[in-house]
Design brief:
alpha/beta, Rossmann fold, 45% helix, globular
Length: 267
């Protein structure tokens, strides 16, 4: 009897990459005329908070409202072009080597690799393609007449990540009891609880406590090696696809980060 199909579900920020996938694009957005210098500085500060202490609920909601307002009316084609042109420059240097090895291990074992992120699918999709992921689940913004409306169609945050994982498992026939999940944030506990093999990666304080109480393994990823250098030394069973197509709307980018990962800690 054939064994059941399984998958490995990965959060993105602080689990696969060392920074916020969204705020990392602040500089190219500024250079492309989408945001002003004040916004760049604010993004830099947000990235600093993200990396060190995290942000509380009120800070996250204020930042989300600000970013939502800022990206309303952005031209989707321009955003797509900026992300496509700068993706490797921005993301390659901040991918955790340990995460790349883990992804390769799961793929070698025949598992599908799925990235589940609160960040916008226009950012997460290309990153997933770079890493050879089989699927991405991410926040999606509404687009009208080629522009971002500032409204969110699907917000993949907290419990909604678990809902999306279960729905995908039903569609693909995954055995969740035999599947794996990885995240750094306490807001992703529902997703971690949805699988039989949950792992806490670079866990925030609240997640670390829950992981210890439940006997979940704790992993520390710290070795951010340029992805191209790492992949140059690998011969993956499934070739890594170059990201040449970016979905529709990195603005989800903006909003998404802070709305993204946690209401009590980092993203």
């Amino acid at each position: 009897m054939a064994s059941a199909r399984t998958a490995a579900f990965f959060d993105l920020d602080k689990t696969i990459i060392a920074k916020s996938s969204v705020l990392a694009f602040g500089k190219p957005f500024y250079q492309g005329g989408l945001i002003n210098r004040r916004a760049v500085l604010r993004s830099a500060y947000a990235q600093f908070v993200f990396a060190l202490a995290g942000a509380d609920h009120d800070q996250i909601e204020r930042m989300r409202a600000y970013l939502t307002s800022m990206c309303t009316g952005w031209d989707v084609a321009q955003v797509r072009e900026i992300v496509s042109e700068t993706l490797h420059e921005i993301i390659d240097p901040i991918v955790y080597d340990e995460a790349v090895e883990l992804i390769a291990m799961h793929k070698a074992a025949g598992r599908d690799v799925v990235i589940v992120s609160t960040s916008g699918e226009e950012v997460v999709g290309p990153i997933g393609a770079m890493l050879g992921a089989d699927e991405v689940i991410a926040t999606r913004m509404i687009v009208a007449d080629g522009m971002y409306t500032g409204e969110i169609e699907r917000y993949t945050y907290g419990p909604e990540k678990a809902v999306a994982v279960v729905q995908l498992a039903e569609q693909r026939g995954y055995d969740l009891a035999g599947s794996y999940a990885y995240s750094d944030s306490v807001t992703d506990v529902p997703m971690l609880e949805a699988v039989g093999h949950p792992y806490a990666v670079n866990a925030d304080r609240a997640l670390r406590k829950i992981a210890n109480e439940n006997g979940w393994p704790l992993l520390t990823f710290s070795n951010a090696v340029p992805l191209r250098e790492r992949l140059a030394g690998m011969r993956p069973e499934h070739p890594v696809v170059s990201a040449t197509v970016v979905g529709a709307g990195v603005a989800a980018a903006g909003i998404v980060w802070y709305a993204s990962k946690r209401r009590t800690g980092r993203a």
